Amino acid sequence: MSYISTRGQAPALAFDDVLLAGLARDGGLYVPAAWPKLTPDDLRRFRGLSYAELAVEVMLPFLGGTIDRADFTKLVNAAYGTFQHKAVVPLTQIDSNAWMMELFHGPTLAFKDVALQLLGQLFDHLLAKKDSRVTIVGATSGDTGSAAIEACRDRERVDIVILHPHNRTSEVQRRQMTTVLSSNVHNVALEGTFDDCQDAVKAMFNDQPFRDALNLSAVNSINWARIMAQIVYYVAAAVAMGAPDREVAFAVPTGNFGNVYAAYAARQMGVPVAKLIVGTNENDILARFFASGEMKADGVVPTLSPSMDIQVSSNFERLLFDLMDRDGAAVAQCMAGFRETGRFEVSQGQLARVRELFAGYRCDTEQTLDVMRDAYAGSGYLVDPHSAVGVAAARHAGLDRSIPVIVMGTAHPAKFPDAVEKATGVRPPLPRHLADLYERPERLDILPNDIQILKDYVRARARVAKQQA
Ligand SMILES: Cc1ncc(COP(=O)(O)O)c(C=O)c1O
Ligand SMILES: N[C@@H](CCOP(=O)(O)O)C(=O)O
User: Where on the chain is N6-(pyridoxal phosphate)lysine found, per UniProt (predicted)?
Assistant: First the structure.
């Protein structure tokens, strides 16, 4: 199993190097050179496996022998042992043919834990094997940051710097990051948007001497390992609904396009997926793309679902790569144009192809609140504002009722208590392990959106750099 860059100019790598590299050296994203296949018999065999057992089966082919089965099983068990629910990602029925897959029972209450708990284990394992260390830089609109910090805190071979947009996350999200006082954890509140944070991270990766000096690594979904771990729950959901003998649809509240891309990857591997419904908030660049074929960035507006306040969805490049028949040069040209002008367009033929599988839906604040209110009034079920966008998208899709729809429940309602209270009148309490979050001291640095200042900040905190000095 080797991995190639979406821009065609970086060396192909094996899994261990892809994990540590994060972004490809040509600015592209790594994808498998070929998709491992799941046959109908494989899917039947998966029925009745625990989540951890299934995770080993689905992910092992992606490792290409870089970690053996016994070691990988230990890492997977350690990762999913941290979840509060025995099923890890339980399914709750929310309508006659719709289910919510609750991805938020991990330590930081968002779907990011599913991948990042495993990434923490993988970094430890591979860095020890290579006797190396890394400096992780990550961008977050709120959830990746806390999940990555939780997964990497106190790890001897890792320093982690997370950039979040100043005053644009929920208070719970911010505190989950800034109250971790471990000496290897550094939080930057950047004066800008999430897109500015993500741009800064990519700029650091694209400065090759800086990247090499600090052994930069990534925890965002630009890192292939994030996508790999997220594929597993789509396989689990489809198998639970009767795959391979029944098709399913997924409704995915979307921002950076990593989660829904993992669903696409599951389909490429052989999971019978009839439709992928992409839900967006008012930052609706993706919904507009699936309607018109034009990707056109606008300013980011703050919404009830702050983790999805994103305009430039980095993982879209991975889908584009397939849409352009894996022509790296064409993708590189398209991305360069997008960077310069803030827009690109696909052909009508490409749009038709993409729409065979994908549909987009924009859900505004009122609709989000309505979904949350209805769910609570109907069954006492509290839904967070991101998952609510997914529910609205699923309802709008108008699918054949014989196809079960699984909405990705991406965050616990307690992460967004203001929005939930506004919709339902109920303020969901934080689970016990976070009950004193508001009393814990915080540590963070507020910095301007200036790449030189940000690089200096990271360099000063990277133990790799200190060892070399
Ligand atoms: C709670 C929540 N829902 C949805 C999303 C969107 O997921 P993706 O960026 O993978 O599209 C995010 C952030 O990424 C999130 O934190
Ligand atoms: N919503 C995300 C944004 C970053 O997405 P990622 O999947 O690329 O890490 C967040 O919560 O930070």
Answer: 112
